Amino acid sequence: MDNITHSLFALTLGRTRLGQAGRGSTAALLIASNIPDIDAVALLRGGASYVEWHRGPTHGALSVVALGLPAAGLAWLWTRGQARYARRPLEPAATLPALAAVSMIGVLFHLLMDFPTAYGTRLLSPFDWHWYSVDWMPIIDIYLLAALLFGLVLAGRHPETRRRGAMAALIFMTGNYVVRAAAHHEALALAPNLLGALPERCDARQPAGMAPEHWPLAAAAPVEGREPPCLVEIAAIPTFLTPTTWRMITRLSSGYEVRDLDLLDALPGSAPARRVRLFFPNEWTPPVRMAAETPLGQLFLGFSRFPAARASVDDSGAATVRMSDMRFVGGPLRLERRPEREPFSALIRFDAAGRVVEQRFDP
After folding, report:
1. What is the DSSP annotation of 141-168?
2. For the whole model, what pTM was predicted?
3. CA pair distance 348, 288, nearest whole angstrom
4. What letter does residue 53 receive in the DSSP assignment?
5. Is the dihedral of CA 339, 186, 301, 308 positive or negative?
6. Which residues pair with 117 in a beta bridge?
7. Mean pLDDT across the stretch 25-29?
């Protein structure tokens, strides 16, 4: 989730009993709900470094304590400074142990809110660097933002109405997660009917729609030697505008098909709309296999859930390899045409002798 949502959620929790631990408890929740994203400092070394560390150890299980305690310390220092310079009597400050407990809850909720997003998170790092997700939520959920904001702004200043506004926002938030989880399940179930007949599975034992999903897989290369192409897996990725529309990524043995699916098309009497279908080849030629062994290639394949690779070779024998993550192609709102720029992609160039002459990551 974005940091505005994390902050609004922290302020909402501050109006519940968690905020009654004493002065400084809301500040502790606000700090703790954002402190896991301190890994953004990796951006100072570029986009590749950010992808390497973002949602890593600061989003692992150990971070609940490792980051919760510093957040509590910052909130405790804030209460001390507030008391020193206050011009009016203040309510009693929360004790340091109380702030520690509140802060660890704030960090835990940050991790739990990031887990359902399609971006995923590495919950077990630094012991296990696999990514995990259930694909329910977009990174920014406009409905969740609106509910939290209205719950804070419209509740007024009276303590009782503030508590009621917070509870209403939390109830809506819970319902939003339930609706998106159910819609995600329906999108996977209805995919064969709304997208057309799907190829046979490459592995008949592999079930569809496993939750939670995890990656990277043991092999990112395509399944070779299958004609016609077979189905490796299918995923439903949430979109930003409505929980009824899902970006369907069909991984085939030869590449990826990307289409939008609207659950409303399954209603009786609805005429399915003509939808754009994009195909992205996944061709593991010798230059692609060379690129996969480079540091940037290894980093990208460790991050990407649906890596699609392709290469071009010029007359001199120099090769250019581009790897893209299918979760981020086609635009955030609607799939219209093949994008001119593919975000979250790696570009690796070799000279005719096979030496790396350029490595670039486009966030």
Report:
1. -HHHHHHHHHHHHTT-S-HHHHHHHHHH
2. 0.91
3. 9
4. H
5. negative
6. 137
7. 96
